[in-house]
């Protein structure tokens, strides 16, 4: 218990140790957003209770739980993948159960979950249709989503011993969770307290499954570099293949994008309607955003040795742009093939817009990624209480905002005139930053190399 309390205090103190004003403002913004969203959902519950909408109260409650479930899982992978934090080193003399319990509790002590809890409490106070039973059930949904995210991170980052007894135990407990949830999933609103007990038992089985999964996957994946003497293979291919962390994050980003586009294709095949037309935010996955937000908005954080080589050999702007393009072209080609296959088969009606938007987004996001890598470098390495992404959150959200501007022609074709303005602004900003590069290179070196000292 002392270890948990100490870790929680250190976790809270770490939030406001640096950039205190900025983080306080962000937390305030999150609390205001929680109040706005709680009022919106309370209003929807009121309308559903009065019969003013097609949805009934149970459906609104179900969509609220699904909304939280999706947000918690997606926050770990979009706009960038966030690795699982290893708060206690494996060599530290702490039992596996104590380590698991401490890490689980500390992970829940975060501004995100604090804002989410405020959202639930405010909605409970605002709406008579959202009872204490529903509030406790939503808390169980949050915990289940967090355990799901942890399990996915373990599969991605660690080497699983598939034949160990711990893995079989995890599989049995996961099967128990599925068996308890298959009839009435947790996100369905409960009508009696007994159902809450069933959901609590299912969550307990899931937590135990996650514990055994971490025991069987205690070792990180081995870092290997595959060398090739074949001169016909380009440097871009070698950069993609040999940097395991960058490759892993890019491949997961492609998988995530393929999942979203596949869901849209399935909706077209079954209902004849695009999910993209129902949720405007899904259009973000049509562009190459995952390539930049996962890796290339911090390209020198991943390929820091390449940056140092160019800086010490010539240090010219032309060489920097050349090696950036070498590293970018293969991932961008894979993303483009994935997008255009989807367009050719399932969304050829919007082919002209998607092609124009994709080309413009490359011309906008590529300069922005170089700007982000120079102005806001981040060290690509896990650290104690390090829950941050591998690229700047600020520039990831700037990239999302600029990409949203490229969707304006969906409103009216005349808004294609926005494209030259956005592309020209991105290139102008890149030129301005490159002129100041000699001042930023010392910060790059300090961030990527001196941070290890």
From TrEMBL:
Domain of life, source organism: Bacteria
Membrane-spanning ranges: 24-45, 65-83, 104-126, 132-152, 164-182, 194-213, 249-269, 281-303, 323-345, 351-372, 393-411, 417-434
Span of the signal peptide: none
Keywords annotated in UniProt: Membrane, Transmembrane, Transmembrane helix
Name listed for the protein in its UniProt record: ABC transporter permease
Organism: Pontibacter anaerobius
Taxonomic lineage from the root: Bacteria, Pseudomonadati, Bacteroidota, Cytophagia, Cytophagales
């Amino acid at each position: 218990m002392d270890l948990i309390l100490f870790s929680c205090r250190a976790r809270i103190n770490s939030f406001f140790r640096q950039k205190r004003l900025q983080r306080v403002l962000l937390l305030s913004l999150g609390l205001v957003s929680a109040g706005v969203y709680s009022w919106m959902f309370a209003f929807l519950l009121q309308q559903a209770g009065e019969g003013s909408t097609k949805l009934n109260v149970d459906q609104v409650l179900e969509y609220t739980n699904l909304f939280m479930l999706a947000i918690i899982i997606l926050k770990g992978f979009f706009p960038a993948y966030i690795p699982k934090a290893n708060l206690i080193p494996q060599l530290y003399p702490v039992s596996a159960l104590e380590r698991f319990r401490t890490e689980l509790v500390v992970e829940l002590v975060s501004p995100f979950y604090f804002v989410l809890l405020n959202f639930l409490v405010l909605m409970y106070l605002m709406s008579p249709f959202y009872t204490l039973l529903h509030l406790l059930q939503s808390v169980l949904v949050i915990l289940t989503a967090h355990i799901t995210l942890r399990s996915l991170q373990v599969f991605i980052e660690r080497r699983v011993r598939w034949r160990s007894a711990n893995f079989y135990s995890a599989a049995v407990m996961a099967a128990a969770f599925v068996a308890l949830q298959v009839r009435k999933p947790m996100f369905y609103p409960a009508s009696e307290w007994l159902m809450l007990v069933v959901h609590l038992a299912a969550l307990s089985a899931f937590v135990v499954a996650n514990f055994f999964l971490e025991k069987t996957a205690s070792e990180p994946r081995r870092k290997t570099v595959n060398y090739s003497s074949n001169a016909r293979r380009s440097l871009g291919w070698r950069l993609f293949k040999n940097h395991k962390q960058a490759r892993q994050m890019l491949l997961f980003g492609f998988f995530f994008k393929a999942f979203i586009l596949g869901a849209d294709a399935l909706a077209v095949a079954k209902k004849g309607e695009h999910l993209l037309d129902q949720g405007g935010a899904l259009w973000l996955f049509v562009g190459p955003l995952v390539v930049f937000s996962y890796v290339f908005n911090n390209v020198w954080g991943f390929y820091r040795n390449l940056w140092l080589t160019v800086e010490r050999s010539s240090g010219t702007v032309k060489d920097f742009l050349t090696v950036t393009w070498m590293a970018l072209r293969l991932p961008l080609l894979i993303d483009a093939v994935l997008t255009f296959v989807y367009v050719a088969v399932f969304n050829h009606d919007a082919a002209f817009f998607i092609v124009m938007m994709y080309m413009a987004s490359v011309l906008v996001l590529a300069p922005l990624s170089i700007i982000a890598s120079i102005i806001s470098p981040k060290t690509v390495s896990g650290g104690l209480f390090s829950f941050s992404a591998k690229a700047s959150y600020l520039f990831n959200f700037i990239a999302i905002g600029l990409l949203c501007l490229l969707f304006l022609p969906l409103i009216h074709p005349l808004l294609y005139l926005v494209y030259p303005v956005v592309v020209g602004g991105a290139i102008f900003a890149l030129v301005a930053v490159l002129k100041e590069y000699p001042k930023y290179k010392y910060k790059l070196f300090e961030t990527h190399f001196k941070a290890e000292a």
